[in-house]
Structures are given as C-alpha cells and as structure tokens.
Amino acid sequence: MKTIGLIGGSADPTLLRMAALIRDRGGDVVWLDNARYPEHTSLSLEDDEVRLDGVDVREVKVWHLRALFLSFPVFRMPDGDFNLFQDWRACYLAQREMYATVSSWIRSVTLGGGTVVNPVETLDQHILKPLQLAMLRRAGLPLPVTLVTNRPEDVVAFAAARGRVIYKPVSGGAFCRALGPEDLQPERLELLRNAPVIFQEHIHGDNVRVCVVGNAVVSAAHIRTRALDYRGNEDGFTSLRLPESVRRLCLKAAKVTGMPYCGMDLIRTADDQWYLLECNPTPVHLGIEDLLGHPVTERLVAYLWDRA
After folding, report:
1. Do residues 296 and 237 both lie within one domain?
2. What is the pTM of this model?
3. What is the pLDDT of residues 73-92, one digit of tens each?
4. Which residue, among 265, 253, 275, has the nearest Cα to 136 in the 3D structure?
5. 113 within some domain
6. DSSP strand E in 24-124: where?
C-alpha cells in the first residue's frame, strides 16, 4: 500500500480533498496537523528515526507541505486574552522551537531520497517577494518594472517615469493599491521611514490564474473583476487555452522558483502581451477547480502517488 504524508491543518479543504482522493486510490494518509502541534500532536526525531504520534514514519517517502509557520512566529493566545506584552518572549521562543523541529525534519526527508512538494525553501517566497522577483527576472521572464524602497525621492521619480503605479507590502498580507496624488504628498511619503514598500508599474489587462503540476499546466483561467486586486472581488471565471509560448513561460517560472506545484498570477494586455506577477507555493485552487472542472487536486495527488 502506498502512503502519502500531508503537512498542514486537518480542516484545510485542499488537504481533505487530497486525502479522499488518495484513499480512493487505495492508499493511506499520515498527517502532521501543525495547527495542533505541539500541544496535541507529537513529533519525535531520534537520530534517523521519525515518530509521528508514536508511529514510525520513516518509510513515508512523499510528503505534501501545505502549511508551515515560517519566519514570523505566530503568537497563539486564547481569544480575548491580550497578554502580548507579558508573555511575547515565551510565545516567540516556543514558536521558534516548533519551526526549528518541523522544518529540520521536512528538509531532512530529501536526504533519504524522499520528496517534499513543495520544498520548505519555497514557502519563504511568500514573504521574500523581492527575492522571487530577482529569480524570475534573471531567468528572463517578463515582469512589471519594480521598485522596493523606503526612500521618498525614489518613489516620486519612479511614479514620474512609469505613470500608473501600484504598491503593496514587501512580505504580502494586504491588497495592492493604486498610487495616487495623495500618496505622493510629503507627509504620506514620510511613512516610508517606518518600512519599505514594493512599487510596480501598473500593467492593465486581464487577470489570469495558472496552476502547474510537474511538467504540465493543469489549469488556466481568466478571472473577471472590476477591482485592482481580484482577491475577494471575483466576478467570474473562464477557462483559457494558453498559447504555447505562455505555457512554456509558466513551466519555466515553476522550475526557476523550485515549485513542482505552483499557482501563478499573470496579466494579459489588450495587445496580447503577457506579464508574470507572482508564483505561489500554496495556491488556493478549489474554487476554480469546482467551477471550471479543472482537475488540479487530482493531478497533484497523481504526481505524489507516482513518487510514493
């Protein structure tokens, strides 16, 4: 019997669908619910032996990494309990120990010939957006011109040179916004002294979402929206057949970023120019899958199954 490991919350809809498909194939699932670790789930590393809730999982050679708290520790506190300033150090240290243990184990899977999809390192690209842009740019992929800065003068010059500009957080976590005259006022620009921001030329066109699994594009959809940032503002979806050149572009982007499973956002302009905006190592694809019948989860499970 083949066994596939899942890492992420046990209520995650994507993982629940994956688990059902794996069992339909006659396989078994082992699950590290990192929303319950370490309070209610145990992980023991004794030399090369790995025990998950007391069960040896060394023979599980394929794992799907859906979620892992990276880089920024999550302060877990009871609802309504605002003890941040009293116990932040203890919370931070506990979360750091959790991340060090789980991350070390996941990374070590490949030392024994196992497979992790996607590798831990790719999750950092969620928050290291300038790094990902540099990787894609050096590979020759078409990107919007981008400025990351905390210097007001550079923003003014960038806006003058590029015309329409959008801005967003360097590490994500908020919607893209259009840069307006009010943002170029001295008192507003002075806020850059607190933290840098990403500024990009605004590429106007259709929003396109693509999912890649392995060496294949398994989903491509036009997302209809009237908003600058389509997230939560979707008016509808339409299946797309990508030109061969764009399909190759997407496969190259997935390879460059090290993501066998990848969701990427692109813009198609009115004159049929294509720009890549971002590659996501843990894409949300169930909505498009259900509405358009694109078998993303099935193809992801098949990819893992072939390597189990």
Report:
1. yes
2. 0.88
3. 444 555 555 555 556 677 77
4. 253
5. yes
6. 28-32, 43-46, 49-52, 55-56, 62-65, 115-117
